[in-house]
Amino acid sequence: MANDKGTYTFKQLAAHVLEQAGAPLTADAIWQEAVALGLDKRLRSVGKTPPATLYSDLHRDTQTGGSDFIRVGSRPRRYWLKARGTPLDQLDVTAPTPKKAANLVERDLHPLLAWFADTQMSGVLVQTIFHEKSKKKSFGEWVHPDLVGVLFPRRALDTDCALGLSAALAAPLCRIYSFELKLRVDFGNLREAFFQAVSNSSWANEGYLVAAEFDDSPEFLDELERLCAAFRIGIIELSPQDPLSADTLIPATARPELDWATIDKLAEMNPDFARFIKNVSDDLKTDIHPKEYDSVPEDVVQYVQGITSKIKG
What range does the domain containing 215 cover? Predict the structure, then answer.
């Protein structure tokens, strides 16, 4: 694929690499190969975190029917070119067995969720809720989520043009999220983890059960899908060993209305939640202030390399 310096898009870069690859590659592997070939010098713009940008472009592109790329697997997620025409069952798509996150703690994953929410959920800003600050701790065990989030649709709109203004007027002012976070969810803790997520998200527009790793047996995934359909909860897998493969396995079913009585109770019980509500209220009145929420790692791959140094194989 010939191209002049400074004219490549990230998708063109990925296509160039995959035209020569012997098997599907993760977004991070595509980027590393591109750098080795000097293709990064041909990009129109690189940005601060090019592997994350590459993943975002491929992730969005493969959600459409007209993509030139194919998703292969999920742990980790890899990509292949449709044009190569090789049946997927003949490709070498065997992924290494992921290491267990035994030495991680849940709060190691909060910055990874902050990155995922910001980059893969259209700019959701999240804030950690520290349970130890709550009043009536035993009463609030299944009331407080681990993190809460807010999406301001106007954040992603071009308000300088008529189309952006029209969309802004039609969009809700904000959408509120609840996230219950676990290291691993399998049959051993599914019921407790899932219904904790249900309880902790009853007040929000959308609720998610998030984990570093989910059991991937067909029986487990069938049960997880059934529960999500019944209780409107979504599922996010963060995949610390390959953060660019983090994905929404099952989207949440949105509730149109917030439960204001529960929101008021949570704000009274926990100062972090009260601060979150105040920040959202202030941002609705003025400009949005992302620095008031959890910080997002500039380089998620580098961040994960730091925390996964604690993981034992």
Answer: 106-308
